[in-house]
């Protein structure tokens, strides 16, 4: 295992951890998560390190990575490209994304990133009434909360509108020790909102969304996950003609390292 940093196109420092050697696999976290908070990525990487170079990085504004304002979705495409070029030794990579990190992976592939395959786990989509759509002003409300010095309100909005937790559950969470860590990364929640875009609008995905993706895509969801998350994965897979939809053992928006490592290994070898 090694740790290091790369420099993105706008000068932002992006921190990463790498395991193994070989063709690169880059892991992208979803909203609020980063290396120090998601041990599943390390566990998965250790299972794959005998065959691949596995890289997990802190998205900008989280963990040990820097940030440079103003934000635009393209900055995160550049961050990913820098990770592949500098940490991945310039070899086109398989990119795996959790949740809204999957939307980022798809967006980057659509915009022509150095990506040979995309794998996603329960990416964000709502195309019917399987779940409530995000409010139309969701990103603007997040931005306003941060600008007003109310990071806790931004986290609460994410938890209720995006994660679909009830208000009373979120009120209890605000009293817990981990809440301060969520507030620390609250400015980045709007980044995920922008990456997701209108995919959670409660209407069919735009015909041109991800039309430029010409690499194999694996869309996974937990066999026992929440029905709305499974529906979102099915919608995205149906929208991408060259994709493969695969339910895997897992529930509550996650799976285990051995399941994920096996799925990624098989996907790479088959494509």
TrEMBL record:
Pfam families associated with the record: Abhydrolase_6 (PF12697)
Indicate the transmembrane segments per the record: none
Species per Swiss-Prot/TrEMBL record: Actinoplanes italicus
**Name of the protein this chain belongs to:** Pimeloyl-ACP methyl ester carboxylesterase
A Gene Ontology molecular function term for this protein is:
catalytic activity
* Residues in AB hydrolase-1 domain copies: 33-254
Highest taxon of source = Bacteria
InterPro entries assigned: AB_hydrolase, AB_hydrolase_1, AB_hydrolase_fold
